[in-house]
Amino acid sequence: MNQASPPALRIGLGYDTHRIGPARPFLLGGVEIPWDRGLIGHSDADVLLHAITDALLGAASLGDIGRMYPDTDPENKDRDSGEMLAEAMRRVRAAGWEIVNLDCVVRAQQPKISPHAAAICARIAEILAISVDSVGIKGKTGEHVGPVGRQEAIEARCVALLYRRLG
Questions:
Q1: What distance in Å separates the CA atoms of residue 159 and residue 59, rounded to the nearest whole number?
Q2: Alpha-carbon span 134 to 159, nearest angstrom
Q3: Residue 153 in contact with residue 18, Cβ under 8 Å?
Q4: d(Cα 123, Cα 130) in Å, to the nearest integer?
Q5: Residues 51-104 pLDDT 10s
Q6: CB-based contacts of 17: which residues, under 8 Å, 6+ apart?
């Protein structure tokens, strides 16, 4: 029996949400953004890097961020999400995959994302060792509806397209 070659392209979808809490450094895409509040999480709560990590791991069929870095492990308390993303990318590359592009959406009533989008794209590109034009970031409000609109939470979604390296 002749087996077909595995697909040369794969798509992964990542999603994360964190509650808004008292003042703590607010990290988004590896960039500290001035804000009088922060996000609640076991790690540094970088909602965007978590969504990207899940998108990459999912596309490569390597599980998810919760399996790599369970929130029940005290070693992950306040862990740098950039380090988690970099390790996920090492695993993705070891499995023979590279990034074509990332397309990300951050839903936040406040703070506004667009003034920070270029810095966020640059930092993500740096962590992943890819071209900055392979990273897209869009900010959307909650239109004052639901947990995002009431400023109770911030959500992030990411779609990652990977290609299989030859050889």
A1: 9
A2: 12
A3: yes
A4: 10
A5: 999 999 999 999 999 898 888 888 878 789 999 999 999 999 999 999 999 999
A6: 47, 147, 153, 154, 155, 156
Assess contact for 51 and 158: CB atoms under 8 A.
yes
Classify burial at 114, counting beta carbons within 10 Å of its beta carbon; exposed 0-12, middle 13-18, buried 19 or more: exposed
Q: Is 92 exposed, middle or buried (0-12, 13-18, 19+ CB in 10 A)?
A: buried
CA distance 19 to 132: 29
- Residue at token pair 């969504």: 51
Q: Would you state the structure tokens that stand for residue 40, as one six-digit string?
A: 């609640």
By residue count, the chain amounts to: 167
Place of tokens 């087996």: 3
> Whole-prediction pTM value?
0.94
Strand 97-107 to strand 135-140: parallel, antiparallel, or no bridges (unpaired)? parallel
**Orientation angle between helical segments 117-128 and 47-59, nearest 10 degrees:** 40
